[in-house]
Design brief:
Blueprint: E1 24-25, E2 32-33, H1 34-38, E3 42-47, H2 54-65, H3 67-72, E4 75-81, H4 85-98, E5 107-109, H5 114-118, E6 133-138, E7 144-150, H6 158-174, E8 188-189, H7 196-204, E9 209-212, E10 215-218
Parallel strand pairs: 3-4, 4-5
Antiparallel strand pairs: 1-2, 3-6, 6-7, 8-10, 9-10
Length: 220
């Protein structure tokens, strides 16, 4: 059996529950200190492999079209690639002309790859000169709540990113969990009991849809 090549260690990978790494970088909206720009709002930070590429262009256009949906949830959008500011600005103008959309959010020009490395956006076995399609959902306290990586050949699903934000904000607000394929307005999962007394209490409740003592749903 041929031994596997050793893993390269040129990137780090933040984990769920970690503080989002802070950084300062140039962007299409000027120099940006992430912690100051974020304030106390949620952020969806996403990277794309390169400007003026087909899949990335469709994604950027859709982020722009859905920007108000994110804004209504108190979420800021922030893009990133390792292209230059000049490239970002030219691409922004091109998308306005060919797809009829204007990008309302900043795009970081990470030519030093510093931010990409902080967030584990460079996957060396795929490319050392382009970021993968990474998505980080960061809450109002600056904590990473979810992260998703896509290969370069597959575009992201904007409905799923919004659904993920909705689920995270709902579970925070109501101390619950969400079941498979959950959508806003549907029943949520009641946290399972942790003691025998809580089991008895759960079995006596009439305000939940009880499937079993450990699996109950309720409408919010």
């Amino acid at each position: 059996m041929t031994p596997m090549a050793p893993l390269l260690t040129t990137t780090s990978l933040p984990r769920i529950g970690d503080p989002a790494p802070d950084f300062e970088a140039p962007s299409t909206h000027g120099n940006l200190r992430f912690s100051n720009w974020r304030g106390n709002e949620w952020v969806v930070l996403f990277s794309h492999p390169a400007d003026f590429t087909p899949v990335c262009s469709t994604e950027m256009a859709e982020f722009a079209r859905r920007a108000k949906d994110f804004e209504q949830r108190g979420v800021k959008l922030l893009g990133l690639s390792i292209d230059s500011i000049h490239s970002h600005l030219a691409w922004r103008e091109n998308l306005k002309q060919v797809l009829g959309v204007e990008l309302p959010f900043p795009i970081i020009a990470d030519m030093t790859m510093e931010v990409a490395r902080l967030y584990g956006m460079l996957h060396d076995r795929v490319s050392t000169v382009a970021t993968v399609r990474a998505v980080f959902v960061i809450d109002g306290k600056g904590v990473i709540r979810a992260l998703v990586y896509y290969p370069m050949s597959v575009g992201r699903n904007m409905d799923e990113i919004l659904r993920l934000v909705d689920a995270l904000q709902t579970t925070d607000a109501h101390a619950c969990a969400t079941p498979v394929n959950w959508r806003p307005g549907e029943a949520v999962i009641v946290p399972p009991p942790k003691t025998v007394d809580e089991v008895a209490e759960r079995l006596s409740r009439t305000d939940t849809e009880r499937i079993d003592f450990y699996l109950s749903k309720k409408k919010l």
